[in-house]
Amino acid sequence: MKTITPQDLRAWLTDGGELALFDLREQGVYCRSHLLFAVCLPLSHLEARVGRLAPRRSVRMVLCDDGEGLAERGHAALEAMGYSDISVLDGGITAWERAGFELFSGVNVPSKAFGEFIEHEDDTPRIEASELQAMIDAGEDLVILDSRPWGEYHRMNIPGGIDAPGAELVHRVHDLAPDPSRTVVVNCAGRTRSIIGAQSLINAGIPNRVVALKDGTMGWELAGFTVEHGATRRAPDPSPEAAKIAQARAAAVAKRFGIQRIDEAALARWQAETNERSLFILDVRSPEEFAAGHRPDSRNAAGGQLVQSTDEYVGVRNARLVLVDDTSVRATMTASWLVQMGWPEVAVLENGLAGDLVEGPEPAPDLPAAETIDAQTLKQTLDAGDCAVVDFATSLQYRAGHIPGAAFAVRARLPEDAAKLPDAARYVAASPDGVHARYAAADLAAATGKPVQVLDGGTKAWTAAGYPVEDGFEHMASQNDDVWYKPYDHDDDVPEKHMREYLEWEVDLVRQIERDGTATFRRFPAAT
After folding, report:
1. Could you read off the pLDDT of 426-444 as tens digits, one per residue?
2. Are 40 and 107 a contacting pair, CB within 8 Å?
């Protein structure tokens, strides 16, 4: 097994070559302390996710942890999958820190640090929650555009806000603010998507006053104002005239930021080189549009989220990125941000949806074989006391609802945590849709020495059959630090404390990236 020193890894991070740097700890542990450009790829989810994050098997790859042995286990698994150029960070993140290098907390840090960089460099206009409320009270002509995905918006939003996620803003704003005197307010939950969304509209040259709501919905609530829950307002598809305006404004953005456009022939040449260069073809439209028809060689990465959480879609630093949509507006606006983030080879595919399209979601990776059990049979078996259920959902999903009596466990921790499971003659592995349980079943059998079945269709099938679930953390074999808890995910009575801590963390990222020195964010001259 090859190892790499912190000094050599830092050199790799800045040499311009491709690098897949994966931290194999669970996300909740990773978010406490990690390298800036380390992509969180928990060992628990390695087989299901690595092919999407690093499609080229010969890519230069480094694995890290904090000395728990996860990197060594991941190295063996990845070699078995055909990855050929793998190193392990010698001494883990502790050695990195001892070498005098910076460690970061949080998730999606490169993207969020970039948002703070943009606000600092472009002086993105912003208003406080109290100022927005005063404008609303005064009856000023304004529109509030929420730049988050539908699920986040629907959960809670600024009263009156309309959902228009990230890259949709320039695409859809012109019918929502046809009068240049109408103020456009962009918000998200915290800061990044408010800043990037507002600056997108400014960069596109819309004549309206555009401002970001400082600190988003968190700032709104911290100011003592209430949010809506369950809102259903969406930005409409652009009218023909608005679509023309959006395309013209996106073309100006493409010129300013030097966005490369390629045709199918150029894409074919890049695809022929995927043994030497990693290639990601990303459809930046909404998930609904993607499911209605997409290129079979593409993956969905809605533009705003691709900028907000690039490391969840692309696991190879300096890979080639090709963006696809129907009019090039969303692809161009997304590309403009990726170029500023320092991605060296980003292109928009011309007429990328002109060929044969396929419907439905992205195909799932091949699942390991497992013996299954349906919900009805499981209910009968549980009633007879003949098995125990082990739930491999995230701890947040488990807390929200699980099969009564099911134990919570983290797949990668089964060697240590199996002793905490209820004693049973056999086990049934469950997860929300049954997919992750398939991967965990063999590990559960190995850790317990007992036969294991998988609940077909997962907990969703259980509830669809009309069977009850319970909530809370009653039966915890593993610690609930597997995922990052957003400020409003904590179940204590001090959400304001978590919100303030989160916002302070975001603001401080500018200073941290300066100390770290491995980011390649780019500053472009102001538009003339």
Report:
1. 999 999 999 999 999 999 9
2. yes
As a whole-number percent, the residues of the chain with pLDDT over 90 amount to 97
Task: Dump the DSSP string for 92-108.
Answer: HHHHHHHTT---B-SSS
Q: State the SS3 of 263-289.
A: CHHHHHHHHCCCCCCCEEEEECCCHHH
The C-alpha atoms of residue 196 and residue 304 are separated, in whole angstroms, by 9
Q: What is d(CA 298, CA 278) in angstroms, rounded to the nearest whole number?
A: 14
| Mean pLDDT score, 108-113 | 98
Which segments of 448-508 are extended strands (E)? 452-455
What's the pLDDT tens digit per position in 283-315? 999 999 999 999 999 999 999 999 999 999 999
Q: How far apart are CA 93 and CA 32, in angstroms?
A: 11
Task: Please give the C-alpha separations between residue 330 and each of 1, 129, 187, 505, in angstroms, as whole numbers.
Answer: 43, 29, 19, 29
Quote the tokens at residue 148.
């988050």
Residue 309: is it exposed, middle or buried by C-beta count within 10 angstroms (0-12/13-18/19+)?
A: middle
Q: For the CA atoms of the chain, what is the radius of gyration?
A: 24
The model's pLDDT over 163-193, given as tens digits with 9 standing for 90+, comes to 999 999 999 999 999 999 999 999 999 999 9
Residue 40 pLDDT exceeds 80? yes
Give the pLDDT confidence score for residue 502 in this predicted structure. 96
Continuous H helices in 42-191: 46-53, 70-80, 92-98, 109-122, 129-137, 150-155, 168-176
DSSP one-letter string for 20-43: EEEE-S-HHHHTTSB-TT-EE--G
What is the length of the chain? 528
pLDDT at 493 over 80: no
Residue 446: its H or E element = helix 435-448
Instruction: Look over the chain and give the mean of its residue pLDDT values, rounded to a whole number.
Output: 97
**What's the pLDDT score for residue 177?**
98
Residues near 59 by Cβ (< 8 Å), separated by ≥ 6? 18, 19, 20, 83, 85, 278, 316
Terminal CA-to-CA distance of the chain, rounded, Å?
Answer: 54
Q: Which residue carries 């040449």 as its tokens?
A: 269
With contact defined as beta carbons under 8 Å apart, do 58 and 51 qualify? no
The pLDDT value given to residue 62: 99
Task: Name 187's bridge partners.
Answer: 146
The two three-digit tokens of residue 300, written as one number: 């969905």
What is the DSSP-derived secondary structure letter of residue 363?
Answer: P
Burial of 277 (0-12, 13-18, 19+ CB in 10 A): middle
Q: 3-class DSSP state for residue 312?
A: helix
Angle formed by the axes of helices 329-341 and 109-122, to 10°? 90
Query: Which tokens sit at 272?
Result: 């022929």
Q: By the 8 A CB rule, do 259 and 285 touch? A: no
